Amino acid sequence: MRVIGLISGTSADAIEAVLCRIEGAPPHLEVEVLGAHTLPFPRQLQQRVHDAATVERSDVQAIALLDADLGELFATAAQELIDTSSESAEHIDLIGCHGQTIWHAVREDGSVASTLQIGKCAFVAERTGITTVSDLRSRDVAAGGQGAPIVAYVDWLMLRHARSYRAVQNLGGIGNVAYLPPLADQTTAPLAFDTGPANVLIDVIVTLLSEGRRSFDQDGAIAARGTIDEAWIEQLLSHPYYALRPPKTTGRELYSPAMGAELLTQGRERGLGDDDVVATITAYSADSVVDQFARFLPRPPDEVIVAGGGTRNPTLMGRLADRLPSGTVLLPLEDVGYASHQKEAIAMAVLAYETWHGRPGTLPAFTGARHGVIMGSITPGRLTGRP
Ligand SMILES: Nc1ncnc2c1ncn2[C@@H]1O[C@H](COP(=O)(O)OP(=O)(O)O)[C@@H](O)[C@H]1O
Ligand SMILES: [Mg+2]
Protein backbone atom coordinates (compact mmCIF):
# COMPACT_ATOMS: atom_id res chain seq x y z
CA MET A 1 0.00 0.00 0.00
CA ARG A 2 0.98 3.61 -0.49
CA VAL A 3 0.26 5.56 2.70
CA ILE A 4 0.81 9.19 3.69
CA GLY A 5 1.48 10.14 7.33
CA LEU A 6 0.80 13.68 8.58
CA ILE A 7 1.60 15.14 11.98
CA SER A 8 2.19 18.37 13.81
CA GLY A 9 3.57 18.16 17.34
CA THR A 10 2.86 20.31 20.37
CA SER A 11 5.39 22.90 19.17
CA ALA A 12 3.14 23.64 16.15
CA ASP A 13 6.27 24.59 14.23
CA ALA A 14 5.63 22.51 11.10
CA ILE A 15 3.57 19.75 9.55
CA GLU A 16 5.74 16.78 8.70
CA ALA A 17 4.42 14.70 5.80
CA VAL A 18 5.81 11.42 4.46
CA LEU A 19 4.76 9.04 1.74
CA CYS A 20 5.53 5.38 2.53
CA ARG A 21 5.22 2.05 0.84
CA ILE A 22 4.06 -0.36 3.51
CA GLU A 23 3.68 -4.11 3.05
CA GLY A 24 3.22 -7.14 5.27
CA ALA A 25 2.01 -7.50 8.82
CA PRO A 26 3.70 -7.36 12.21
CA PRO A 27 6.21 -8.67 13.07
CA HIS A 28 7.24 -8.56 9.40
CA LEU A 29 6.21 -5.06 8.45
CA GLU A 30 8.14 -3.53 5.58
CA VAL A 31 8.23 0.28 5.49
CA GLU A 32 9.97 2.28 2.78
CA VAL A 33 9.91 6.09 2.69
CA LEU A 34 9.18 7.24 -0.89
CA GLY A 35 8.94 10.98 -0.26
CA ALA A 36 8.83 13.59 2.47
CA HIS A 37 7.76 17.18 2.84
CA THR A 38 7.89 19.73 5.65
CA LEU A 39 5.33 22.53 5.64
CA PRO A 40 6.33 25.18 8.19
CA PHE A 41 3.47 26.78 10.08
CA PRO A 42 2.80 30.38 9.17
CA ARG A 43 3.86 32.27 12.34
CA GLN A 44 0.37 33.66 12.84
CA LEU A 45 -1.20 30.20 12.69
CA GLN A 46 1.34 28.87 15.19
CA GLN A 47 0.32 31.68 17.53
CA ARG A 48 -3.37 30.82 17.06
CA VAL A 49 -2.61 27.18 18.02
CA HIS A 50 -0.72 28.22 21.14
CA ASP A 51 -3.51 30.65 22.06
CA ALA A 52 -6.18 28.00 21.51
CA ALA A 53 -4.23 25.72 23.86
CA THR A 54 -3.95 28.33 26.62
CA VAL A 55 -7.09 28.58 28.76
CA GLU A 56 -6.87 32.33 29.35
CA ARG A 57 -6.51 33.06 25.62
CA SER A 58 -8.81 30.43 24.15
CA ASP A 59 -12.43 30.55 23.06
CA VAL A 60 -14.84 28.29 21.23
CA GLN A 61 -15.10 30.45 18.12
CA ALA A 62 -11.32 30.58 17.73
CA ILE A 63 -11.12 26.79 18.07
CA ALA A 64 -13.90 26.17 15.52
CA LEU A 65 -12.20 28.38 12.93
CA LEU A 66 -8.79 26.92 13.67
CA ASP A 67 -10.20 23.39 13.26
CA ALA A 68 -11.10 24.22 9.65
CA ASP A 69 -7.96 26.26 8.87
CA LEU A 70 -5.72 23.47 10.19
CA GLY A 71 -7.72 20.94 8.15
CA GLU A 72 -6.82 23.00 5.09
CA LEU A 73 -3.17 23.18 6.18
CA PHE A 74 -2.93 19.39 6.62
CA ALA A 75 -4.59 19.00 3.20
CA THR A 76 -2.03 21.41 1.71
CA ALA A 77 0.84 19.46 3.27
CA ALA A 78 -0.50 16.22 1.75
CA GLN A 79 -1.09 17.84 -1.63
CA GLU A 80 2.38 19.42 -1.76
CA LEU A 81 3.91 16.06 -0.84
CA ILE A 82 1.98 14.38 -3.66
CA ASP A 83 2.98 17.15 -6.11
CA THR A 84 6.70 16.70 -5.31
CA SER A 85 6.60 12.91 -5.46
CA SER A 86 6.38 10.74 -8.56
CA GLU A 87 3.13 9.15 -7.38
CA SER A 88 -0.26 10.48 -8.42
CA ALA A 89 -3.04 10.76 -5.86
CA GLU A 90 -4.94 7.87 -7.49
CA HIS A 91 -2.13 5.53 -6.51
CA ILE A 92 -2.12 6.54 -2.87
CA ASP A 93 -4.37 4.34 -0.78
CA LEU A 94 -4.56 5.93 2.63
CA ILE A 95 -3.63 8.90 4.82
CA GLY A 96 -3.01 8.81 8.57
CA CYS A 97 -3.53 12.31 9.95
CA HIS A 98 -2.69 13.01 13.58
CA GLY A 99 -3.98 16.58 13.58
CA GLN A 100 -2.89 19.19 16.11
CA THR A 101 -3.17 18.53 19.83
CA ILE A 102 -4.63 21.52 21.63
CA TRP A 103 -5.65 19.86 24.89
CA HIS A 104 -4.59 16.71 26.73
CA ALA A 105 -6.77 16.54 29.84
CA VAL A 106 -4.96 14.68 32.61
CA ARG A 107 -6.81 14.04 35.88
CA GLU A 108 -5.25 14.51 39.30
CA ASP A 109 -4.49 10.78 39.55
CA GLY A 110 -2.63 10.86 36.22
CA SER A 111 -5.36 9.18 34.14
CA VAL A 112 -6.53 10.89 30.95
CA ALA A 113 -10.10 12.21 30.64
CA SER A 114 -9.87 13.45 27.04
CA THR A 115 -7.36 14.37 24.39
CA LEU A 116 -8.26 16.82 21.65
CA GLN A 117 -6.61 16.91 18.22
CA ILE A 118 -8.03 19.39 15.75
CA GLY A 119 -7.60 19.98 11.99
CA LYS A 120 -10.72 18.59 10.36
CA CYS A 121 -9.72 15.56 8.36
CA ALA A 122 -12.81 15.97 6.14
CA PHE A 123 -10.78 18.71 4.44
CA VAL A 124 -7.88 16.32 3.87
CA ALA A 125 -10.13 13.60 2.39
CA GLU A 126 -12.07 16.15 0.30
CA ARG A 127 -9.02 17.95 -1.14
CA THR A 128 -6.93 14.82 -1.84
CA GLY A 129 -9.69 12.27 -2.53
CA ILE A 130 -7.78 9.83 -0.30
CA THR A 131 -9.37 7.90 2.57
CA THR A 132 -8.08 9.37 5.82
CA VAL A 133 -7.68 7.91 9.31
CA SER A 134 -7.76 10.55 12.04
CA ASP A 135 -8.44 11.03 15.77
CA LEU A 136 -5.98 8.24 16.45
CA ARG A 137 -5.77 8.67 20.21
CA SER A 138 -9.38 8.67 21.43
CA ARG A 139 -10.13 4.95 21.31
CA ASP A 140 -7.20 4.25 23.62
CA VAL A 141 -8.52 6.87 26.06
CA ALA A 142 -11.96 5.23 25.87
CA ALA A 143 -10.26 1.95 26.83
CA GLY A 144 -8.77 3.59 29.92
CA GLY A 145 -5.42 4.50 28.35
CA GLN A 146 -3.40 7.69 28.15
CA GLY A 147 -3.90 7.96 24.36
CA ALA A 148 -0.14 8.47 24.35
CA PRO A 149 2.74 8.14 23.71
CA ILE A 150 1.31 7.40 20.30
CA VAL A 151 4.53 6.50 18.49
CA ALA A 152 5.74 3.89 21.00
CA TYR A 153 4.02 0.93 19.35
CA VAL A 154 5.66 1.74 16.02
CA ASP A 155 9.03 2.11 17.77
CA TRP A 156 8.42 -1.32 19.27
CA LEU A 157 7.63 -2.77 15.83
CA MET A 158 10.54 -1.15 14.02
CA LEU A 159 13.36 -0.42 16.44
CA ARG A 160 13.77 -3.38 18.80
CA HIS A 161 17.27 -4.80 18.67
CA ALA A 162 18.28 -8.46 18.83
CA ARG A 163 20.35 -8.06 22.02
CA SER A 164 20.59 -4.37 23.06
CA TYR A 165 18.26 -2.68 25.52
CA ARG A 166 17.12 0.43 23.74
CA ALA A 167 15.32 3.59 24.77
CA VAL A 168 13.86 5.68 21.98
CA GLN A 169 13.71 9.25 23.26
CA ASN A 170 11.81 11.90 21.35
CA LEU A 171 12.70 15.52 22.10
CA GLY A 172 9.73 17.48 20.78
CA GLY A 173 7.88 20.14 22.73
CA ILE A 174 7.42 17.41 25.34
CA GLY A 175 9.88 14.53 25.73
CA ASN A 176 8.73 10.93 25.53
CA VAL A 177 10.46 7.60 25.77
CA ALA A 178 9.78 4.07 24.61
CA TYR A 179 11.85 1.50 26.50
CA LEU A 180 12.42 -1.52 24.28
CA PRO A 181 13.86 -4.71 25.76
CA PRO A 182 15.64 -6.73 23.05
CA LEU A 183 13.98 -9.49 21.05
CA ALA A 184 16.11 -11.97 23.02
CA ASP A 185 14.44 -10.90 26.30
CA GLN A 186 10.88 -12.19 26.39
CA THR A 187 10.33 -11.44 30.09
CA THR A 188 11.07 -7.73 30.65
CA ALA A 189 8.00 -5.63 29.86
CA PRO A 190 8.39 -2.66 27.52
CA LEU A 191 7.40 0.76 28.84
CA ALA A 192 6.54 4.17 27.42
CA PHE A 193 5.74 7.55 28.96
CA ASP A 194 6.33 11.28 28.72
CA THR A 195 9.53 12.31 30.44
CA GLY A 196 8.61 16.00 30.85
CA PRO A 197 9.59 19.17 28.99
CA ALA A 198 12.08 18.83 26.13
CA ASN A 199 11.83 22.11 24.19
CA VAL A 200 8.58 23.63 25.37
CA LEU A 201 9.90 25.65 28.31
CA ILE A 202 12.98 26.78 26.38
CA ASP A 203 10.66 27.96 23.58
CA VAL A 204 8.33 29.82 25.95
CA ILE A 205 11.19 31.60 27.74
CA VAL A 206 13.05 32.55 24.55
CA THR A 207 9.77 33.88 23.11
CA LEU A 208 9.23 36.01 26.22
CA LEU A 209 12.82 37.29 26.35
CA SER A 210 12.82 38.26 22.67
CA GLU A 211 9.31 39.76 22.88
CA GLY A 212 8.16 37.34 20.19
CA ARG A 213 10.97 37.96 17.74
CA ARG A 214 12.26 34.40 18.26
CA SER A 215 10.37 31.24 19.11
CA PHE A 216 13.29 28.95 20.05
CA ASP A 217 16.97 29.02 21.01
CA GLN A 218 18.57 28.46 17.62
CA ASP A 219 21.38 25.88 17.93
CA GLY A 220 21.28 26.31 21.70
CA ALA A 221 23.37 29.48 21.33
CA ILE A 222 21.78 31.43 24.19
CA ALA A 223 22.00 28.45 26.57
CA ALA A 224 25.66 27.95 25.64
CA ARG A 225 26.47 31.51 26.79
CA GLY A 226 24.81 31.17 30.20
CA THR A 227 25.83 29.64 33.51
CA ILE A 228 23.79 26.76 34.93
CA ASP A 229 22.21 27.08 38.39
CA GLU A 230 22.48 23.44 39.51
CA ALA A 231 20.67 23.96 42.82
CA TRP A 232 17.64 25.36 41.01
CA ILE A 233 17.48 22.28 38.74
CA GLU A 234 17.37 20.04 41.79
CA GLN A 235 14.37 22.00 43.08
CA LEU A 236 12.61 21.87 39.72
CA LEU A 237 12.95 18.09 39.57
CA SER A 238 10.97 17.80 42.81
CA HIS A 239 7.80 18.63 40.82
CA PRO A 240 5.19 15.90 41.47
CA TYR A 241 5.06 14.90 37.78
CA TYR A 242 8.49 13.30 38.03
CA ALA A 243 7.42 11.08 40.94
CA LEU A 244 4.25 9.88 39.18
CA ARG A 245 4.62 6.28 37.99
CA PRO A 246 4.26 5.40 34.28
CA PRO A 247 2.24 5.05 32.17
CA LYS A 248 1.87 8.84 32.36
CA THR A 249 1.67 11.66 29.88
CA THR A 250 1.70 15.41 29.97
CA GLY A 251 1.60 18.44 27.70
CA ARG A 252 1.41 22.19 27.39
CA GLU A 253 -1.45 22.17 29.92
CA LEU A 254 1.17 21.57 32.64
CA TYR A 255 4.37 22.82 30.96
CA SER A 256 2.52 25.95 29.96
CA PRO A 257 3.38 29.51 28.96
CA ALA A 258 2.38 30.43 32.52
CA MET A 259 4.94 28.00 33.93
CA GLY A 260 7.58 29.43 31.57
CA ALA A 261 6.82 32.98 32.71
CA GLU A 262 6.92 31.87 36.34
CA LEU A 263 10.33 30.23 35.80
CA LEU A 264 11.66 33.41 34.24
CA THR A 265 10.52 35.39 37.29
CA GLN A 266 12.03 32.82 39.65
CA GLY A 267 15.32 32.85 37.76
CA ARG A 268 15.53 36.62 38.01
CA GLU A 269 14.77 36.44 41.74
CA ARG A 270 17.68 34.03 42.03
CA GLY A 271 19.85 36.73 40.46
CA LEU A 272 20.29 34.99 37.13
CA GLY A 273 20.77 36.85 33.86
CA ASP A 274 18.64 36.02 30.82
CA ASP A 275 21.26 33.69 29.31
CA ASP A 276 21.64 31.89 32.65
CA VAL A 277 17.89 31.26 32.83
CA VAL A 278 17.90 29.73 29.33
CA ALA A 279 21.05 27.72 30.17
CA THR A 280 19.50 26.37 33.36
CA ILE A 281 16.12 25.52 31.81
CA THR A 282 17.90 23.79 28.91
CA ALA A 283 19.98 21.70 31.35
CA TYR A 284 16.84 20.99 33.41
CA SER A 285 15.03 19.76 30.28
CA ALA A 286 17.89 17.32 29.57
CA ASP A 287 18.13 16.29 33.23
CA SER A 288 14.40 15.51 33.39
CA VAL A 289 15.03 12.76 30.82
CA VAL A 290 17.97 11.37 32.80
CA ASP A 291 15.99 11.58 36.05
CA GLN A 292 13.06 9.66 34.58
CA PHE A 293 15.32 6.94 33.13
CA ALA A 294 16.93 6.46 36.54
CA ARG A 295 13.59 6.33 38.34
CA PHE A 296 11.55 4.15 36.04
CA LEU A 297 13.53 2.11 33.49
CA PRO A 298 14.12 -1.44 34.73
CA ARG A 299 17.81 -1.02 33.85
CA PRO A 300 19.90 1.63 32.11
CA PRO A 301 19.55 1.26 28.33
CA ASP A 302 22.57 0.23 26.25
CA GLU A 303 21.50 2.68 23.55
CA VAL A 304 19.36 5.81 23.61
CA ILE A 305 18.06 6.60 20.14
CA VAL A 306 17.19 10.28 19.99
CA ALA A 307 14.84 12.06 17.61
CA GLY A 308 12.90 15.32 17.34
CA GLY A 309 13.77 19.00 17.12
CA GLY A 310 15.77 18.93 20.35
CA THR A 311 18.48 16.91 18.59
CA ARG A 312 19.28 20.11 16.70
CA ASN A 313 20.12 21.90 19.98
CA PRO A 314 23.77 20.98 20.73
CA THR A 315 23.61 22.50 24.23
CA LEU A 316 20.65 20.29 25.17
CA MET A 317 22.26 17.24 23.56
CA GLY A 318 25.62 17.93 25.23
CA ARG A 319 24.02 17.98 28.68
CA LEU A 320 22.10 14.77 27.93
CA ALA A 321 25.26 12.98 26.79
CA ASP A 322 27.04 14.26 29.90
CA ARG A 323 24.46 13.11 32.39
CA LEU A 324 23.45 9.69 31.03
CA PRO A 325 25.15 6.68 32.66
CA SER A 326 28.60 6.12 31.15
CA GLY A 327 27.66 2.73 29.63
CA THR A 328 24.80 4.27 27.62
CA VAL A 329 25.44 5.25 24.01
CA LEU A 330 23.52 8.19 22.53
CA LEU A 331 22.55 7.44 18.92
CA PRO A 332 20.87 9.81 16.47
CA LEU A 333 17.86 8.15 14.79
CA GLU A 334 19.71 8.65 11.49
CA ASP A 335 22.21 6.00 12.63
CA VAL A 336 19.44 3.39 12.62
CA GLY A 337 18.16 4.44 9.21
CA TYR A 338 15.48 7.11 9.69
CA ALA A 339 15.46 10.89 9.37
CA SER A 340 14.73 12.30 12.80
CA HIS A 341 12.07 14.80 11.78
CA GLN A 342 10.19 12.17 9.72
CA LYS A 343 9.82 9.57 12.45
CA GLU A 344 6.44 10.60 13.85
CA ALA A 345 4.93 11.09 10.39
CA ILE A 346 6.11 7.60 9.38
CA ALA A 347 4.44 6.30 12.55
CA MET A 348 1.12 7.93 11.54
CA ALA A 349 1.31 6.15 8.18
CA VAL A 350 2.02 2.81 9.90
CA LEU A 351 -0.79 3.29 12.43
CA ALA A 352 -3.28 4.13 9.66
CA TYR A 353 -2.11 1.02 7.77
CA GLU A 354 -2.64 -1.13 10.85
CA THR A 355 -6.10 0.36 11.42
CA TRP A 356 -7.02 -0.28 7.77
CA HIS A 357 -6.10 -3.94 8.28
CA GLY A 358 -8.14 -4.18 11.46
CA ARG A 359 -5.15 -4.58 13.75
CA PRO A 360 -4.40 -2.75 17.00
CA GLY A 361 -1.89 0.10 17.07
CA THR A 362 -1.25 0.22 20.80
CA LEU A 363 0.12 -1.94 23.57
CA PRO A 364 -1.50 -1.78 27.04
CA ALA A 365 2.03 -1.74 28.51
CA PHE A 366 2.63 1.61 26.77
CA THR A 367 -0.62 3.50 27.21
CA GLY A 368 -2.09 1.80 30.28
CA ALA A 369 -5.32 0.89 28.46
CA ARG A 370 -7.29 -2.24 29.37
CA HIS A 371 -6.47 -3.76 25.96
CA GLY A 372 -4.89 -2.90 22.62
CA VAL A 373 -7.15 -0.87 20.33
CA ILE A 374 -7.70 -0.37 16.62
CA MET A 375 -7.07 3.34 16.38
CA GLY A 376 -8.91 6.22 14.78
CA SER A 377 -11.89 7.19 12.68
CA ILE A 378 -12.00 6.54 8.94
CA THR A 379 -13.20 9.24 6.54
CA PRO A 380 -13.83 7.96 2.99
CA GLY A 381 -11.87 9.54 0.14
CA ARG A 382 -12.99 9.54 -3.50
CA LEU A 383 -16.74 9.35 -3.60
CA THR A 384 -18.03 7.89 -6.83
CA GLY A 385 -21.74 8.05 -5.97
CA ARG A 386 -24.23 10.51 -7.41
CA PRO A 387 -23.97 14.16 -6.37
N1 LIG B 1 18.27 24.43 15.17
C1 LIG B 1 17.62 24.29 16.33
N2 LIG B 1 18.18 24.72 17.47
C2 LIG B 1 17.54 24.61 18.65
N3 LIG B 1 16.32 24.07 18.80
C3 LIG B 1 15.71 23.61 17.69
C4 LIG B 1 16.32 23.69 16.40
N4 LIG B 1 15.46 23.16 15.51
C5 LIG B 1 14.35 22.76 16.22
N5 LIG B 1 14.50 23.05 17.53
C6 LIG B 1 13.53 22.83 18.61
O1 LIG B 1 12.69 21.76 18.26
C7 LIG B 1 11.31 22.14 18.42
C8 LIG B 1 10.45 21.40 17.46
O2 LIG B 1 10.69 20.04 17.63
P1 LIG B 1 9.66 18.97 17.10
O3 LIG B 1 10.31 17.64 17.21
O4 LIG B 1 9.11 19.39 15.79
O5 LIG B 1 8.56 19.11 18.24
P2 LIG B 1 6.99 18.90 18.16
O6 LIG B 1 6.81 17.44 17.93
O7 LIG B 1 6.51 19.36 19.50
O8 LIG B 1 6.50 19.77 17.02
C9 LIG B 1 11.30 23.64 18.20
O9 LIG B 1 10.19 24.23 18.83
C10 LIG B 1 12.64 24.05 18.82
O10 LIG B 1 12.48 24.23 20.19
MG1 LIG C 1 7.22 19.87 15.12
Secondary structure: elements and pairs:
Layout: E1 2-8, E2 14-25, E3 28-40, H1 43-52, H2 60-84, E4 94-106, E5 112-118, H3 121-128, E6 132-134, H4 138-142, H5 152-159, E7 166-171, E8 174-180, E9 191-197, H6 200-209, H7 221-225, H8 230-236, H9 240-243, H10 257-269, H11 274-296, E10 303-307, H12 314-323, E11 329-332, H13 343-356, H14 364-367, E12 377-379
Parallel strand pairs: 1-4, 4-6, 7-10, 10-11
Antiparallel strand pairs: 1-2, 2-3, 4-5, 6-12, 7-8, 8-9
Helix pairs in contact: 1-2, 2-3, 6-10, 6-11, 8-11, 10-11, 11-12
The structure holds adenosine-5'-diphosphate (ADP) and magnesium ion (MG).
Characterise this structure.
By secondary structure, the chain is of the alpha/beta class. It folds into two domains: 2-148 and 341-379, Nucleotidyltransferase, domain 5; 152-336, 2-Layer Sandwich (Nucleotidyltransferase, domain 5). Helix content is 38%, strand content 22%. Strands 1, 2, 3, 4, 5, 6 and 12 form a seven-stranded mixed β-sheet that branches. It has a five-stranded mixed β-sheet with strand order 9-8-7-10-11, with helices on both faces. A hairpin with a 5-residue loop joins β4 and β5. The longest helix is centred in the N-terminal third of the chain and has 25 residues, at 60-84. The two termini are 29 Å apart. Adenosine-5'-diphosphate binds at residues 9-11, 13, 172-173, 199, 202-203, 216-220, 308-310, 312-313.
